[in-house]
Amino acid sequence: MNNHIKLIELEEADSLKNDEEANELRTQLKDMGIFMLNVMGAPGSGKTELIHRTVPYLSNEYRVGCLCTDLDTTNDAYRLSEVCSHIIQFHTGGMWPYVAAEGSRLGLMEMIAEDVNVAILENLGVLISAAAWDTGATMNIVVLSAADGSDVPLKYPYMFAICDAVIVTGMDFANMTGFDLNRCHASLRSINESAPIFPVSSRTGQGIGEWSAWLMHRIRLYNVM
Ligand SMILES: Nc1nc2c(ncn2[C@@H]2O[C@H](COP(=O)(O)OP(=O)(O)OP(=O)(O)O)[C@@H](O)[C@H]2O)c(=O)[nH]1
Ligand SMILES: [Mg+2]
Question: Which of 23, 134, 200, 201 has the fewest CB neighbours in a 10 Å radius?
Fold first, then answer.
């Protein structure tokens, strides 16, 4: 295994304790000045590619670490090791389709030891349980592919209700799938009043600068407030 990639096997979490553990973790992260971004979205929606594009922007100002989640492989961790030298790979082994607060705390302890101050969690590609389990993250985003329907926010309302931003990937092929950004925006607004939508292409780089600038602004605000 690549020297940079540490493996953590996640265990079953306690649903009765998770919210409390998540809130405690968020408070600890705030006290330590560590920002944690939770990246959720369906399998293949473009989470890893988006993180791969975003890390170089953040690395200009922050010490960035990535926490990847997979059933069994380390493929995403290897891809992200091209742009990030602090990487944790979570394995769920197929038993637990989520990352809970206790899991993120274990990964973050490793990151803190390496002085990371911005941690990006690529959550498992499941739309319901990823949203149901609070990871303790500072910010939650949803990655939606232009290959998906424009009404996905209405179909998975909880995930879109709790998110702070929606990133639509695949804008380079959106005209072929007929993805309707206005309809997606209207679907999102019916359940989330404020989360912005960033249309991007991880292939061409379109929109990545705007999304990364917004994220960095939010990290700066977090650090001063
Ligand atoms: N053309 C195009 N392809 C993209 C874009 N974003 C991702 N892809 C491709 O879509 C496929 C899936 O992207 P990933 O980033 O691996 O998706 P993921 O959400 O991390 O997938 P899982 O980790 O398996 O859930 C890959 O072949 C990417 O190269 C994009 O904006 N445009
Ligand atoms: Mg991935």
Answer: 23
